[in-house]
Structure formats: C-alpha cells, structure tokens
Specification:
CATH class of the largest domain: Alpha Beta
CATH architecture of the largest domain: 3-Layer(bba) Sandwich
Largest sheet: 9 strands, mixed
Bound molecules: flavin-adenine dinucleotide
Strand content: 25-35%
Distance between the termini: 39 Å
Structural class: alpha/beta
Amino acid sequence: MTLTPRLQTLPPQARSLYDWIIVGGGITGAALGYELTQVGCSVLVVERSPTPANATRYSYGGLANWAGTSPLTRDLCETGMARHRRLSEELEADTQFREIPLVMPIATDADAAAVAADFQTVAQPPQWLSRTEACDLEPLLNPAAISGAFVVTQGQIAPDRLTDAYLQAMGRQGGQVAIATVQALVQRSAQVTGVMTSAGAWYGANVVICAGGWSRQLLKQFGFPMPIYFTHAEMVELPPAGVSLRTMVMTAPLQRPALEMAATAPDRAAAWENPDQELAPPVLDAGAVPFQDGTIRIGQLSRALSHPVAMVAAAASEAAIRQAVEQVLPALGGVPGTWHHCLVAFSRDRLPLIGPVPGVEGLHLFSGFSTPLVVLPTLAQRYARQIAGTPDPWLPQMTPDRLLS
Ligand SMILES: Cc1cc2nc3c(=O)[nH]c(=O)nc-3n(C[C@H](O)[C@H](O)[C@H](O)COP(=O)(O)OP(=O)(O)OC[C@H]3O[C@@H](n4cnc5c(N)ncnc54)[C@H](O)[C@@H]3O)c2cc1C
C-alpha cells in the first residue's frame, strides 16, 4: 500500500480550518474520512508514512459476518456485509470483495466439542466437516494433523485496496491527505484546535485519533490516557509461488481473544504503565489466507508487550509461524516469504471506542476494533451521520467513557 499518488504536502497558505482532522491513514481513518466528507465536513487525514507498515497492510481482510453474538454485533455484521457488497461500486474502485470458505481445522488432540459449543452463540454457526470432507474442500490440509474442521462462508476484501478506495473517494469530495507525524495537540484552554506535526501546525474544530495500535501511546503523550490497548502482531507474506489455497484457513479455537482478556485483567493495569512488560504469554493462531493477487499471508503470532516499539526476534518468530503452519498446511511451510510486524488495537470488552475523549473539547477516538473489517463501513457511516445530527441507537454503547471506571 502506498499513499504517494494522492498525497499533497499542503503549503502553509493552503492550511485552512478543517471541520475534522483525522490522525492515522489506516483503514479506520480512511473510512471515517470518506464518511465525514459524505455528510459535508471538510477533512484532513494526517498519516505519518507514505507506505504505512500498519495493521491494515498486513491484515487478512476477513469479514467475519457470521460471528456476531449480540443484537448489536449481529446487526453491525449484517449491515456491514451488505455495505461491503456495494462498496466497489460506491467508491468506484475494486475492493476485491469476495465470499470464500473459512476452514477452521481442529488438531487431533484438540476438543472439537468445546469449539462447537462456543460456536452455538454466533449468528451463523460453522458446520462440522469430517477429515475427508475438509481435505476435499481444502486439498492443502494435512489429514494426519486434524480430526476434522469447522467451515463457514465469509467475506474477504483486500484491506489496502479498500483503504485506498476510501481515500480516493474522500479526495473526490474535497478531503485531503497529508504525510506528517502528529506530535502534539494544539489547544486553547480545554479546547483542542488542531495538531502540531513534523510539517507544522494544522487547525481544525475537531481532531479524531484513528491511529490503531498507536492510539494508546498518542493519547497518553497528549495527556489523555485512555483504556485502549494493542498487541504486537507478526505474520509472513508469501509472494505468488505456484501454491494456491482454495480457502482461508484458521485453526480453531482462536487464541487471540484469550490473550486480549488476560492482558487487560485488572491486575495487569499497572504493568501497562511500565516499559518492557509482557502482559501475558504470546499466542500463535496458525492460519493461511490467500489474496486475489496470488499472495498468501501466514501467521499469526500475537504478543502483549507494554511498549509499542518493543523488540521482537524476527527469525525466531518466523520459524515458529512456519512450523505451526506447516503442521496443518505442509506445502506452505517452506515457501520463501517476508516477515512483518505491526500493532493491532483492541479494547477490553471487544467493542471499539467511538466518541469524545472525556476531559477536553474537540478530541475524539475512533479505534480499538479487534476485528473491524466487517463492521467498519457501517460504524464509520453511523458515526459521521451522528456528527451531522442524526442520533444513533448503537453508538452510545461504544463511547470511550464506558471503560473509564
Ligand atoms: C495479520 C493480521 C490479520 C488480521 N486479520 C483481520 C481479519 O481477517 N479481519 C479483521 O476484521 N481484522 C483483521 N485484522 C485487524 C485489522 O486489520 C486491524 O484492526 C485494522 O486494519 C486496523 O486499522 P487501523 O486504521 O485502526 O490501524 P492501522 O492500520 O494500524 O493504521 C493506523 C495508522 O496510524 C498512523 N499513525 C500512528 N501514529 C501516528 C502519528 N503520530 N501521526 C500520524 N499518523 C500516525 C500509522 O502510521 C498507521 O498507518 C488483522 C490484523 C493483522 C495484523
């Protein structure tokens, strides 16, 4: 993903007062930027890198529309999926939306009945396939390593393409993007009036933080610490190599939700404030995801480390990922590829933080989505419409102050 073609380094005389300044040009900032221009706001997205190595860039792009567990998440998944089906047309760019089986193999020593019980709470429970049926559906699976698999059809988009499409569409509606690192807020007493960046000051009536896993550190640096967290995620990208997956493969049960819960247990609060702390042991969710350009992403190691720039041992991580993936998909373990690392934001109740940051006027947060891709188009649209004056029935459940107690 490269932002270069659409970027302007705006000259100072072009620096007007924006209705909204968005910090972060990943998929959340891009979606919100587009929706805000849709309701008539003037918008500036400030992204620090022309080629962001962010969570959006390395994401699997899965739209887990089947996985809603409450009236709120079921509605958001349903409306989000409906919107994804139309987004290529609306944004006039191919988001590479498709529907594809998600195969969740169960290791021979894992408890398939417990996984099945967990799936009973979701909107569309995945179906059990025998070992033979699973290998017929995904011939790269290793029959010796699995007892069977759960399968469900889910959506997928190319996250960098969708981000690009949102930003281009935003640009056609007058929104602007600038490459600069936001270093501080501009404030007049208890009112935020802009951002100070590596390229100078930009002024706006509202500033919204869409910095993904960096949001926690940024808000703390600005003097408004918020209960938003991050994991360090590691994956390996395989270029087109003549090995093709028919499905998305993700071993079940997924480990990452338990890591997020353990890392935000009440007794971990103090550790987040200290550098170099490991909040919980790392987890590895072995999986492999194909994209329409022939690349495959394998992973995913997740670590809960308190510092966003903590060192991770790339070679050891890549070896661990390859070993875990090779167990399930032997043909993929040895395909050359490139290791990548990024931060992924999350909240302690798995709902995003959307709304004003308490204690100051004009500062907002739109982040903390664990698996945002299916719900993001809906939530960005609803938030923009609420800003434009249409109260939303769901958004009050997601305001940041719900987690401040
Ligand atoms: C391997 C992997 C697989 C995933 N698979 C899925 C999936 O299948 N489905 C799903 O729903 N989700 C998935 N996710 C999660 C999802 O991709 C991310 O949650 C989402 O992309 C985060 O988007 P974001 O915009 O919040 O953050 P990011 O994409 O991280 O963007 C934040 C941006 O903020 C910028 N920034 C930070 N600080 C500053 C600053 N001071 N000034 C200016 N800019 C700044 C950064 O440069 C960055 O570009 C996956 C994540 C990973 C890593």
